[in-house]
Specification:
The protein is α/β, with parallel strands linked by helices. The chain is 51% helix and 7% strand.
């Protein structure tokens, strides 16, 4: 029998492992937050799982976008039905679920009986009962054929057997009762059905993860189960759902860039000290420079030229950077955007204030003259076309941004042209969505471009944000 001190130590170690897992998922947790989390354990009911979930989330999370990853990890570390005082070694073995709570008469189809129970629970809307039913459904219906490595469970087997989506009409009828179909009442009922079905799917997936973690270890499952946060999604692997989430990060990045440039202009308004005028003015105060004089400094509007590779190999990255270009257009009038594949065309006209980014990207594919020969990336030719047609776009007041992976398909990279643009520009940077270790491999000329322009690794929003702060 464990003593109170032993139980407290086990709980502290369990919490420490949970905090480490959150950090590894990309959620920053400082020492003070970890201390607050330990304090939470002393003020909440440890047997009330949802109270514990929300209490720890209140002190460990900073943004709502971190909540999905947190919930997955919480379900792994504080599984349903397990006491929080249990140590990592006390997890229930995979496949051990006890006896079913359903009364199954002889000759009755278990699957059909469970479908009836699921329909009843979905109508009641009892989330706790639904989670416990999901646990039993995984045990009864989610088992696969045992293998030498142990028992395996799969959520798709449960969903296929119960087919909860086929219960929608029945659930709507139960929620609406004798109310007239159509109108607001039906919309509310349909939304309730969607939310309850989604909650059941999430509960099944959480239970499958719990059993897999008991078999293979929590740390291993956590690495595969937790989706990267929006600011850590690799641009080159971003899906349409990821891009939708990334859109919400563009405006703050553009705003931060605007604030930084504005602050630089404000700090430089007075210009350099005019020593002669300051000394002359000090003669009236006995040689004490009470009032200083500065040379007037001409304030120029920030100008930005963006050169973006829109070839298929960097589709996710180009989509995001074009969204950033659109956001910058909202703040500055001096932003010009150019897209290229094996030729270059100005696409600023597609990014008017208020324009839809998805529509602008589609128009670039249809209307922009970015393909001159075969549609494969040709950086050298694209840079030459830009230098020939828009040489005046880059000047001593211009910041130049090149966005692309630098893979030339073994064609001439046009280094002299890039070097000339860099010399004319006020500043020049190249954002590359590939890992630094791949620069120079295969047909990549990134290492050679890096000799004439500041080449920056930019694989996700977090790295882009770091770049913006140093721009």
């Amino acid at each position: 029998m464990s003593t109170p001190a032993t139980a407290t130590g086990g709980l502290a170690g369990h919490l420490d492992g949970f905090v480490r897992a959150i950090r590894e998922a990309g959620i920053p947790v400082g020492i003070s937050q970890a201390v607050d989390a330990a304090e939470i354990l002393t003020v909440v009911d440890l047997l009330d799982r949802e109270q514990l979930r929300h209490g720890l989330a209140a002190v460990l999370l900073q943004r709502a976008a971190q909540r999905p990853a947190y919930d997955v990890l919480f379900d792994l570390w504080w599984p349903l039905g397990d006491r929080p005082l249990a140590s990592a070694d006390d997890s229930e073995p995979a496949g051990e679920a006890g006896e079913s709570t359903l009364d199954v008469p002889d000759g009755t189809d278990l699957t059909e009986l469970m479908r009836e129970e699921l329909a009843r629970l979905l109508l009641d809307g009892d989330e706790e009962a639904l989670r416990r039913f999901a646990r039993e459904a995984v045990d009864q219906l989610g088992r696969a054929v045992p293998s030498p490595s142990g028992q395996s469970f799969f959520s798709y087997r449960v969903m296929r057997a119960l087919s909860p989506d086929t219960l929608v009409a029945r659930l709507l009828a139960g929620l609406l009762g004798d109310a007239e179909r159509g109108g607001l009442a039906e919309q509310v009922a349909r939304q309730a059905v969607r939310e309850r079905l989604a909650a059941f799917r999430a509960a099944v997936e959480a239970e499958v993860r719990r059993r897999t973690a008991a078999e293979r270890g929590r740390d291993r499952v956590a690495k595969n189960a937790v989706r990267p946060l929006a600011d850590q999604v690799d641009f080159l692997r971003a899906q349409s759902a990821d891009l939708a989430e990334l859109r919400r990060t563009v405006a703050p990045l553009a705003r931060r860039l605007a604030v930084r440039l504005s602050a630089r202009r404000q700090m430089g308004r007075e210009g350099r000290l005019d020593f002669r005028k300051t000394v002359r003015a000090s003669l009236g105060t006995g040689g004490v420079p009470v009032v200083t004089h500065h040379r007037p400094r001409k304030v120029h509007k920030p100008e930005l030229v963006v050169l973006c590779d829109v070839s298929g190999s960097v589709a996710g990255f180009s989509h995001f950077t074009l969204m950033l270009t659109q956001a910058l257009r909202e703040h500055f009038s001096g932003v010009r955007a150019f897209a290229f594949v094996d030729s270059t065309d100005e696409v600023t006209r597609f990014f008017r204030p208020g324009a839809d980014v998805a529509d602008a990207v589609a128009r670039i594919g249809r209307e922009a003259d970015v393909v001159g020969f075969d549609g494969h990336s040709d950086y050298g030719t694209a840079f030459e076309v830009f230098a020939d047609r828009w040489a005046s776009a880059v000047g001593p007041k211009t910041s130049l941004l090149v966005l692309g992976d630098g893979r030339t398909n073994y064609r001439p990279p046009g280094l002299p042209v890039v070097a000339g643009l860099v010399r004319r520009a006020r500043s020049a940077h190249w954002l590359n969505p590939e890992p630094r270790r791949l620069w120079g491999s295969g047909d990549s000329a990134a290492d050679r471009y890096g000799e004439v322009i500041d080449m920056v690794e930019c694989r996700n929003v977090a790295q882009l944000a770091d770049f913006v702060t140093t721009l």
